[in-house]
């Protein structure tokens, strides 16, 4: 027997009202509806099936960011088109949960089919091997009626028709409506609540046609109903079901029908007892869970295909509260085969993240696989950051992340292979440096600059890399540079370039002084690192551990002295002398010194740097003194208020790498 004192009376009353609402509210016994194609399917592990898995993952990853999204992947007959829509009143979190569940459900209900659609309570998800974006489709519309099946008088039907037509016009032709509209209408002391919505790929006219068709299909139904369509959604009820009132319930609307009274009298006590017991167990477990914070402490292990979506949603969204991307998953077995079980002969190098291995996938593609070291204190954070961040970035001068793997204790990142290794391997080895000539060196410098400019100004997110150095620039077959290692990168928001994180990490020799010593960082921190890298490339000398002469303990100070003495040509890498251009060399030294000026306010932006690198007609200003050490600013220890406002410098903790 369940005693009433176990659950507070407020909770009991709330449960009772919810129970009553379940009897009246058309929360259909099975809110999931699907439609799978009957013509053609693809075997598991086929190219189409692999593309389908990627599409479902991609759609799921976007759902916490936007209520509507469509995309495609693959080529020719293996191409897959996918789309989802969440009802506009739901929260971003609820949208993410709904699409994650829909992705899982569509795989179970429509295994390997070439076309399918699933409707959930507040969202729908659809895919096909044929392009359907922007194409109106009202075939197979599914009208759902309230189980109470109360007939509607003609006056009611007429009012619903007028209301839905009005909302259809508003959703379709009001540009600010996002093809979504809700409205209310009074009828005999009650209120009709209605909602319409179209997929945003439709034209205004097609949206209106879809909703008009839906209205015709639904009007013969009861006092509350909804219409599921491939291109739109429509619903009306006698209680509020959208917005902040979505959980509200007006007990006065419960119809006094003998059949329902009998059901309530006979079924309610048993159901209420079950609900009360369930509430007690739930609350008890929730209290224990709150104390232990189980979900917040551990990684969700992935042991196979079906749990990938759960990992994506529960771990990346709930644990880190991050906005996720489209990231394909590799299983551990395939990576072990690709690397010959992480054989030392396949090891390419070792970084702060852990070892990097060369691998060959089953399709013959060569990849580089970064393996998270169990001894790295920041490794898990780097792993999360790299996956969530770099998947948003697409630029020819950024290394491409192909996927990830999380199984048991293993956490791995799979990248495209850069056959010429990292820039530091070639730049600081006298024999390998012979591969570089002046033209190739300039191409590397300009490519790096364009990659950073993309991060700062042109990507969907605005990003500070924070660890730009020669070892984090990889070279492809043609010696084109690609910036890598985004484990330390952070996004910043607003037009002033403010970062949104407080953790400072990086590599001495490349870190701007205000960043290393004062905990101040901005886009100008990356500009400083780029200036150091530029000078290293054209001189062939490291800034860190520089031992050129007793006159200067660092490359920056040495370059500054020679520049002021009119002897900058002495900086030239001897291996480049036969191919270099004197005027270009002096100009690049000049640009490098502008980038490493001690005061962040004096440094140019990356957009200005790219212009200076490409155009010889741009007049360069005289550089101020570089930062020779990691000391404080000379102007009372910090940049002035104007500089702080313009460049978004922020105070942080110092955690050098």
Q: Estimate the mean pLDDT confidence.
A: 75
Principal-axis shape: elongated
State the CATH superfamily name of the largest domain: Transferase(Phosphotransferase) domain 1
β-strand number: 24
- In DSSP terms, counting alpha (H) and pi (I) runs of 4 or more, how many helices? 18
CATH class of the largest domain: Mainly Alpha
- The tally of domains stands at 5
**Main beta-sheet strand count, sense and barrel state:** 5 strands, antiparallel
Q: What is the CATH third-level topology name of the largest domain?
A: Transferase(Phosphotransferase), domain 1
Low-confidence segments: 1-31, 245-268, 279-326, 494-502, 629-657
Helix content: 25-40%
The rounded distance between the terminal residues' Cα atoms is 61 Å
The second-level CATH architecture of the largest domain is: Orthogonal Bundle
Strand order of the largest sheet: 1-4-5-3-2
Fraction in beta strands: 15-25%
Structural class: alpha+beta
Rg, Å, rounded: 31 Å
């Amino acid at each position: 027997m369940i005693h009433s004192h176990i659950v507070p009376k407020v909770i009991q009353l709330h449960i009772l009202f919810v129970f009553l609402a379940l009897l009246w509210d058309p929360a259909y016994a099975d809110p999931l509806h699907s439609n799978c194609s009957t013509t053609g399917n693809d075997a598991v592990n086929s190219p189409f099936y692999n593309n389908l898995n990627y599409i479902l993952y991609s759609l799921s990853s976007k759902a916490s960011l936007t209520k509507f999204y469509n995309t495609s992947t693959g080529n020719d007959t293996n191409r897959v088109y996918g789309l989802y829509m969440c009802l506009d009143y739901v929260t971003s979190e609820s949208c993410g949960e709904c699409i994650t569940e829909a992705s899982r459900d569509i795989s179970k209900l429509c295994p390997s089919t070439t076309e399918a659609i699933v409707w959930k309570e507040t969202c729908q998800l659809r895919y096909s091997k044929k392009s359907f974006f922007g194409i109106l489709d009202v075939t197979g519309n599914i009208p759902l009626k309230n189980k109470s099946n109360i007939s509607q008088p003609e006056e009611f039907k007429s009012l619903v028709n007028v209301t839905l037509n009005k909302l259809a016009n508003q959703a379709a032709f009001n540009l600010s409506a996002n093809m979504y509209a809700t409205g209310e209408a009074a009828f005999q002391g009650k209120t009709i609540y209605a909602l319409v919505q179209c997929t945003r790929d439709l034209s205004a006219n097609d949206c209106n046609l879809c909703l008009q068709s839906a209205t015709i299909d639904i009007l013969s139904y009861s006092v509350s109903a909804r219409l599921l369509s491939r291109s739109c959604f429509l619903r009306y009820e006698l209680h509020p079901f959208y917005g902040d009132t979505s959980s509200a319930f007006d007990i006065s609307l419960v119809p006094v029908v003998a059949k329902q009274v009998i059901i309530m009298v006979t079924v309610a006590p048993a159901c209420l007892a079950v609900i009360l017991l369930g509430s007690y167990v739930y609350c008890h477990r929730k209290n224990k869970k709150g104390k232990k914070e189980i979900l917040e402490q551990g990684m969700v292990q992935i042991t196979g295909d079906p749990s990938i979506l759960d990992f994506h949603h529960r771990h990346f969204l709930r644990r880190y509260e991050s906005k996720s991307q489209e990231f394909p998953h590799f299983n551990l077995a395939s990576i072990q085969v690709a690397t010959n079980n992480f054989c030392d002969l396949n090891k390419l190098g070792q970084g702060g993240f852990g070892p990097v291995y060369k691998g060959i996938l089953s399709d013959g593609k060569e990849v580089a696989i970064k393996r998270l070291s169990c001894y790295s204190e920041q490794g898990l954070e780097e792993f999360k950051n790299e996956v969530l961040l770099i998947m948003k970035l697409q630029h020819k001068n950024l290394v491409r992340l192909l996927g990830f793997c999380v199984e048991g204790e293993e956490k791995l990142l799979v990248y495209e292979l850069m056959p010429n290794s990292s820039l530091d391997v070639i730049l600081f080895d006298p024999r390998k440096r012979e591969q570089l000539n002046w033209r190739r060196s300039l191409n590397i410098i300009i490519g790096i600059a364009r990659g950073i400019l993309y991060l700062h100004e042109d990507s969907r997110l605005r990003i500070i890399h924070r660890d730009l150095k020669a070892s984090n620039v990889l070279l492809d077959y043609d010696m084109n540079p690609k910036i890598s290692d985004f484990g330390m990168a952070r996004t910043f928001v607003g037009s002033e370039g403010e970062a949104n994180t407080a953790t400072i990490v990086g590599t001495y020799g490349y870190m701007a002084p205000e960043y290393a010593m004062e905990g101040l960082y901005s886009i100008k921190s990356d500009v400083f690192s780029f200036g150091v890298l530029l000078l290293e490339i054209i001189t062939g000398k490291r800034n860190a551990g520089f031992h050129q002469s007793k006159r200067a303990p660092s490359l920056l100070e040495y370059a500054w002295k020679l520049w002021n003495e009119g002897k900058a040509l002495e900086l030239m890498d001897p291996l480049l002398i036969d191919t270099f251009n004197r005027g270009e060399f002096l100009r690049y030294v000049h640009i490098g010194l502008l980038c490493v000026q001690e005061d962040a306010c004096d440094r140019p932006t990356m957009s200005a740097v790219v212009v200076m690198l490409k155009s010889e007609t741009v007049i360069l200003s005289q550089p101020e003194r570089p930062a020779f050490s990691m000391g404080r600013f000379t102007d009372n220890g910090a940049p002035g208020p104007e500089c702080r406002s313009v460049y978004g410098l922020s105070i942080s903790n110092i955690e050098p790498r």
